[in-house]
Design goal:
Length: 352
């Protein structure tokens, strides 16, 4: 992160390209941190012809992926539209068009995030099943522990249908956001709903928190989006986060922004109430989130518990802390059923 962060400054500090081992390290790891295309675009005017060819290859791949995801979004939104199911495109290629120039600099998405009201969830799943998607888990089981239903396709990107914005059962129901949507058009001319500006900033803050703050790209994206919107929109987004009791997430975002980019996030004139564990929210906790994020492969039970403990310290009030513990127990039972089902399937495959 220390090598990558200067390349994300405005203007970028490209001095790392003069240190060959460090530059090789950047090229090797920028993709893991979600900023590969941003780095390639930043250094392209300053590198040799050979290195410029590497930049062009990265940017060409990113452009092709962005165009492909626009077509996939068109396919999914059209299928939902045929059943008259209102749907909001979250993140993805339309967010890229909103805050990036060119749009393909945004990290390549591997799935499509779509918001649908909970009372439309079964119909939305059915609409996607009719075009070749399959539910990863039954809707009723997912409603008990998560904020989205996942559908997979044999060759198309995965789709996540959000009935809450983030944070599993503790997340904000998506129904309220339909009242404030904006509209965009896909290259085909199909009209698509996206979150209103303040709600979009709110979603990015919550997504950063739900990803446990260790993803450099998510922190960079919050910074980029907040800079692009006027002060009244930023104020409204923060006020909504406070109103929904995500003050711990806001305070940790402030610490993360100061730690990584050396600048404040929260305006001094916007009060953010202290949380019940406010004394725990400091730079040391942020580095704990960073350390958690660099793990690779399947998480051990100990690593999962550590991640939950990190999240627990950001709860606003004891009532949210209790809900978090209750959710932890429910999620553990769900994951145990999933693992048992997977083991049974594998055992059956071996016998066959």
């Amino acid at each position: 992160m220390d090598l990558l962060t200067p390349l994300l400054a405005d203007p970028p500090d490209v001095s790392v390209i003069g240190d060959e081992p460090a530059w090789l390290n950047v090229k090797r790891n920028a993709g893991d941190y979600g900023v590969l295309a941003i780095v390639a675009n930043a250094v392209r005017p300053h590198v040799s012809l050979q290195e410029r060819a590497w930049c062009d290859r990265i940017l060409t791949q990113s452009w092709a992926h962005h165009e492909g995801m626009l077509r996939q979004l068109d396919f999914v939104i059209a299928a939902l539209g045929e059943r008259r199911i209102p749907a909001i495109s979250l993140k993805g290629p339309l967010l890229a068009q909103r805050y990036y120039e060119p749009p393909y600099l945004r990290k390549s998405a591997t799935d499509l995030d779509i918001a649908v009201a909970e009372n439309n969830l079964a119909a939305a799943c059915d609409a996607l099943i009719r075009i070749g998607y399959e539910l990863e888990f039954p809707i009723a089981e997912v409603l008990a522990v998560s904020h989205h239903v996942t559908l997979r396709h044999s060759f198309r990107p995965r789709v996540e249908l959000h009935f809450r914005l983030s944070h599993q059962k503790q997340g904000i129901r998506v129904e309220e956001f339909f009242e404030r949507v904006e509209h965009r058009f896909l290259p085909s001319g199909l009209e698509v709903m996206v979150l209103g500006a303040a709600d979009q900033l709110l979603h990015l803050i919550l997504h950063l928190g739900h990803s446990r703050f260790g993803t450099l790209f998510n922190l960079y994206e919050v910074r980029r989006a907040f800079r692009a919107e006027p002060p009244d929109v930023r104020t409204e987004a923060i006020a909504r986060a406070v109103g929904h009791h995500f003050c711990g997430t806001l305070r940790m975002t402030e610490i993360a922004m100061r730690t990584r980019f050396g600048e404040p996030f929260l305006p001094s004139d916007i009060p953010v109430p202290a949380t019940w564990l406010n004394w725990r929210i400091d730079e040391r906790l942020y580095y704990g989130f960073e350390r958690w994020s660099v793990q690779h492969g399947d998480l051990t039970p100990g690593a999962r518990l550590w991640g939950r403990w990190l999240e627990f310290q950001l709860t606003d009030r004891p009532v949210e802390a209790i809900r978090s513990l209750t959710l932890l127990a429910g999620t553990a039972r769900f994951q145990l059923r999933v693992r048992k089902g997977s083991c049974s399937q594998n055992s059956g495959n071996r016998v066959g």
